[in-house]
Amino acid sequence: MTFQGLVPESREAWHVSIADAQPMPVCGDGPETRFAVPPSWMKTESQGPINSCSANGMTSCVEKCEYARTKKAVQLSRWFQYVESERFTYGQPGRDDGATLSAALRVGREIGFVTEADEPYPATYDRNRTKFNTEIKALASERKITSTISLASGYSAWRTLLGRDIGAVLLGMYWPVQLDSKGYATRVPTGGGGHAIAGLFLADTSDANGNPDVWILNSHSTSFGLNGWFKVTRSFIEALQARDDFGNVGVSDMSVPGPRVVDWTKREMIG
């Protein structure tokens, strides 16, 4: 099965959507969080036959931010996020032709998120569930993206955002990606369908110059890569940003982003 769903948009449109992104703060020296294996509470999901990758990537980013904010693991509704992203992409939902990265970001900032318990993810696209009542919309408004952060400075911004526990990276690229036997993406894809994914944590591995690798969460079930995850190197990130095919941005629960220390080992599930 070919998974896709990230709708192309012009570079200009993407940059307009992140025009108010804050610059990465100067964090100075401090502890850096790195993982041999990503936290077990971060669920690897499958988008199945639905073209909802932008929603999967967006909700995974915010699930990390929610954990940092509340110290509780939460499963956010991919269905709610996807339907509302379709609305911003096409004017109305119901097509299941995917959505833009800008639309996913706009939903997170303007409408918000509800839990998977509130709006479960269907096995196939359900056109009878594309209208949400006022109670659900009210719930969503209580949980929004607080800030976006520019990653224009490249790998160093990714490293600071993830390693200093500030937030997560929402990104898009062409698909499929090729992985080696160790779960590393070997090169930035240059064709295929568009796909959205989430950069969530630094790995405890690094390149020859000591630059930590990054854990990326995909939405093609645990059968993909390393239990649904794969790794990218500094050189991969630099090549990805040089191409800028779909864009990437940092998201955070912090209104004034800055370094912090989070205990990622607790696990109280909600949603």
Measured between the Cα atoms of the first and last residue, the distance is 29 Å
CATH architecture: Alpha-Beta Complex
Total of domains:
1
CATH superfamily: Cysteine proteinases
Tell me the number of strands: 9
Q: What CATH first level would be assigned?
A: Alpha Beta
User: What is the percent of helical residues?
Assistant: 25-40%
Order of helices and strands: HEHEHHHEHEEEEHEE
Judged by helices, strands and strand pairing, the structural class is alpha+beta
Return Rg in Å. Answer: 17 Å
CATH topology: Cathepsin B, Chain A
Largest sheet descriptor: 7 strands, mixed
Mean pLDDT comes to 95
Beta-strand portion reads 15-25%
Number of helices: 7
How would you classify the quaternary structure?
single chain
User: What are the segments in which pLDDT stays under 50 over at least 5 consecutive residues?
Assistant: none
Describe this structure in words.
- The chain is 28% helix and 17% strand.
- The chain is α+β, with helices and mostly antiparallel strands and 271 residues long.
- It has one domain (11-19, 33-270): Cysteine proteinases (Cathepsin B, Chain A, Alpha-Beta Complex), CATH 3.90.70.10.
- Strands 1, 3, 4, 5, 6, 7 and 8 form a seven-stranded mixed β-sheet that branches. The chain has a two-stranded parallel sheet with strand order 2-9.
- A hairpin with a 5-residue loop joins strand 5 and strand 6.
- Helix 2 packs across helix 3 (78-90) and helix 3 crosses helix 4 (101-110).
- The two termini are 29 Å apart.
- The model has no long low-confidence stretch (mean pLDDT 95).
